[in-house]
Design goal:
The structure holds 2 protein chains of 2 kinds. Chain A has 2 domains: 4-86, Winged helix-like DNA-binding domain superfamily/Winged helix DNA-binding domain (Arc Repressor Mutant, subunit A, Orthogonal Bundle), CATH 1.10.10; 96-182, Winged helix-like DNA-binding domain superfamily/Winged helix DNA-binding domain (Arc Repressor Mutant, subunit A), CATH 1.10.10.10. Helices cover 50% and strands 12% of the residues of chain A. Chain A has 10 helices and 5 strands; from the N terminus they run αααββααβααββααα. A 3-stranded antiparallel β-sheet of chain A has the order 3-5-4. Chain A has a two-stranded antiparallel sheet with strand order 1-2. In chain A, a hairpin with a 2-residue loop joins strand 1 and strand 2. In chain A, helix 2 crosses helix 3 (42-56). The two termini of chain A are 42 Å apart. The radius of gyration of chain B is 32 Å and the shape is elongated. Chain B is 52% helix and 5% strand. In chain B, helix 7 runs antiparallel to helix 10 and helix 8 packs across helix 10. In chain B, the strands form 2 sheets. Chain B has a 3-stranded antiparallel β-sheet with strand order 2-4-3. Chain B has helices at 8-18, 23-33, 43-59, 66-83, 91-94, 100-127, 152-172, 182-192, 201-205, 211-226; strands spanning 150-151, 198-200, 230-233, 242-245, 258-259. Chain B is mainly alpha-helical. Chain B has 2 domains: 9-85 and 94-122, no CATH class; 145-170 and 177-259, Arc Repressor Mutant, subunit A (Orthogonal Bundle). Chain B starts with 7 loop residues before the first helix and ends in a 14-residue tail after the last strand. The chains are: A alpha+beta, B mainly alpha. Chains A and B meet through strand 2, helix 4, helix 5, helix 6 and helix 10 of A and helix 6 of B.
Chain lengths: 206, 273
């Protein structure tokens, strides 16, 4: 494609994930006062992005599909070099309690603090503040439950931080979204015991 | 150098304590350590182990978080309950299912999310090693605009930014709005910024949570600028706007001119003080 170079330049200069539709629009509209390619289709952009990713693979850069768009980054195995250039000692990572809270929100959003605490069995106000501050979660509304508690959801930065295309890409999302949170199961009868047994077994296999 | 006052052992213990993210985590660890089937947990053994851990923490003068104690109470209750023959249980409980199942269900559920957290952590470990471009500071030709001058457009733009942030805040919860007056806010501004001093434009609005209050305060500010009591100053394009109070005794002498755009020669008249 004659516009492949333009695509590469746009992705290199971008500071956020670029959606294929946005890239196609930029290519169609052309530069300020110049001519674009009015027939470029989103599918063609997507295809070219795959080629670009393949071309970059043996090099020092990678093309990732994160948070609904595409983004150029440095290859992970070169992180030591780049970190030294940037004066970063250690990449900022979340603590185990923050990751647990993050996981509950990711799978069960929108969710209130009380619901998260019911799963984790600990006070989560501190970790919630940290996650909001880091920009990976946000307050997304209020629940209709008594007291109208605040609800938390993930942000696009969450997807980028964990290298996820979308929420569907979360591991075991099917199952973890199904897990009943507030209503207790009653496995008192042998039959129900059996069912619970199965549930445990299937979860440990996956 | 300041000598190390803490005995080295306390550091190791803190690691031991922080190894568990909560009582559920500790319970799962003990179940695994005892090679118990989560579904066939032996309450007596588990309670004993759990309390043993808490005692160890307390012996070392470590503050045991309340949640760990709540779980201890739950375990003791469940254990004592399981020792009672069914006919001796309090009548209101006979109907209920064994509350042990509630704990087991919680543990299973928690374990799933803990595993998911581990997987997220792995992803984070990989992706935190990928660096992307971050937005850089926009370099604008300084000659575009003389330093010190703030155009009406800049001021309105800054005001809109403040309004937006207030809207974000008020999404969280809206109370009945108080009635604010321009006169009241003029007093507030004069009180807030002493003569000859200055404050960041955004900082003036930081404590305000309603749109009405921000609008009235902005009107009061425009009024004071018109009266040459305040001036809006900026070091250059895109720099933060500061609001400066005219020093006492130089009333009527403008330190900075508000550059009025054509057709808007004066900020609109607001209600008189």
């Amino acid at each position: 494609m004659e516009w492949a170079r333009v695509l590469e330049a746009l992705l290199f200069a971008a500071t956020e994930p670029m959606e294929p539709l946005r890239l196609a629009t930029l290519l169609r509209d052309g530069p300020e006062g110049g001519q674009g390619w009015p027939d470029v289709k989103e599918d063609e952009v997507r295809e070219e992005l795959t080629h670009l990713g393949e071309r970059l693979a043996p090099r020092g850069l990678i093309l990732r599909e994160v948070a609904g768009g595409f983004r150029i980054g440095t290859a992970p195995d070169l992180s030591g070099w780049v970190a030294k250039l940037k004066g970063v000692v250690r990449p900022p990572r979340l603590s185990p309690p923050a990751l647990e809270t993050m996981a509950v929100i990711a799978y069960r959003q929108p969710i209130s603090r009380a619901e998260i605490e019911a799963v984790r069995g600990v006070d989560c106000s501190g970790t919630l503040d940290t996650l909001v501050e880091r920009g990976v979660i946000r307050i997304s509304g209020r629940s209709d439950a008594p007291g109208r508690p605040i609800l938390y959801s993930t942000t696009p930065l969450f997807l980028e931080h964990f290298g996820l295309r979308d929420l569907e890409e979360l591991p075991n999302s099917e199952e973890l979204r199904r897990v009943k949170l507030p209503t207790p199961v009653d496995p008192a009868t042998p039959q129900q015991k059996e069912l619970l047994h199965e549930a445990i077994e299937s979860s440990s296999q996956s | 150098m300041i000598p190390m006052l803490e005995p080295p052992s306390s550091e190791a213990l803190r690691v031991e304590l922080s190894a568990f993210t909560g009582p559920m985590d500790l319970l799962l660890h003990l179940i695994k350590e005892q090679e118990m089937d989560i579904y066939e947990i032996r309450l007596e053994k588990l309670t004993e182990q759990y309390l043993g851990r808490l005692d160890k923490m307390r012996e070392e003068n470590l503050a045991v978080a309340g949640e760990f104690l709540v779980m201890a109470a739950t375990l003791i209750y469940l254990k004592s309950r399981s020792l009672l023959p069914v006919q001796d249980r309090p009548p209101e409980e006979v109907e209920d299912e064994d509350p042990k199942w509630e704990l087991i269900r919680q543990l299973i559920e928690y374990r799933k999310f803990k595993e998911a957290a581990g997987q997220l952590g792995d992803r984070e470990a990989l992706h935190s090693r990928i660096f992307g471009r971050i937005p850089e500071r926009v370099v604008v030709n300084q000659a575009m605009q003389g330093p010190g001058l703030v155009s009406m457009f800049d001021l309105v733009w800054a005001f809109q930014k403040v309004l937006r942030s207030v809207e974000d805040r008020s999404k969280v919860g809206r109370f009945e709005e108080d009635q604010f007056t321009v006169g009241q806010k003029i007093e507030f501004l004069l009180d807030r910024v002493s003569p000859g001093e200055e404050i960041l434009f955004e900082d003036l609005f930081r404590t305000m949570s309603s749109r009405g209050e921000v609008v009235v305060t902005f009107l009061a500010m425009l009024e004071l600028i018109r009266l040459r009591q305040l001036a809006a100053v900026q070091d250059g394009p895109l720099q933060p706007i500061r609001i400066r109070r005219t020093p006492d005794g130089v009333l009527g002498v403008p330190t900075v001119v508000i550059v009025a755009e054509e057709g808007t020669s004066q900020p609109s008249e607001s209600s008189a003080v």
